[in-house]
Specification:
The chain is of the alpha+beta class. The protein has one domain (2-107). Helices cover 42% and strands 28% of the residues. It contains 4 helices and 4 strands, in the order βααββααβ. The protein has a 4-stranded antiparallel sheet. Helix 2 runs antiparallel to helix 3 (76-83) and helix 3 (76-83) packs antiparallel against helix 4 (91-97). The protein is elongated, with a radius of gyration of 14 Å. The structure holds zinc ion. Residues 33, 37, 86, 89-90, 93, 108 line the site of zinc ion.
Length: 108
């Protein structure tokens, strides 16, 4: 079963990850990555949303994926700056750069 959690708040985002059992270097890495996207989006005047999609099998948590959603992000330069904000952009972050035209909602 898939659960989708969204919040505009970094503290709630961290709490959600901890609730899912994400700890230690995994948590640090995840937070550093998404916070970099999030803070860059804020600095450029957007209202980013943090999202965590988790999968449960028989009630037991087994996997998650987090991302930052930025609505109304169409400025190619802003997309580039936000996508490449983390020290180690993900494969998805680089893919977003290839789809720069006609994006209404960017998922990083
Ligand atoms: Zn990313």
């Amino acid at each position: 079963m898939e659960e989708i959690y969204t919040t505009p708040n970094l503290v709630d985002f961290e709490i959600k990850l901890r609730e899912l059992g994400v700890r230690g270097s995994s948590l640090e890495r995840e937070l550093a990555h998404e916070v970099a996207h999030f803070n860059k989006a804020i600095a450029l005047g957007y209202n980013p949303i943090l999202r965590v999609i988790s999968n449960h099998l028989g009630g037991e948590f087994f996997d998650y994926m987090s991302s930052v959603l930025v609505s109304n992000l169409t400025n190619p330069n802003h997309i580039r700056l936000i996508a490449l904000a983390p020290k180690n952009p993900s494969m998805n972050d680089f893919l977003v750069l290839n789809e720069i035209s006609n994006i209404k909602n960017t998922n990083l």
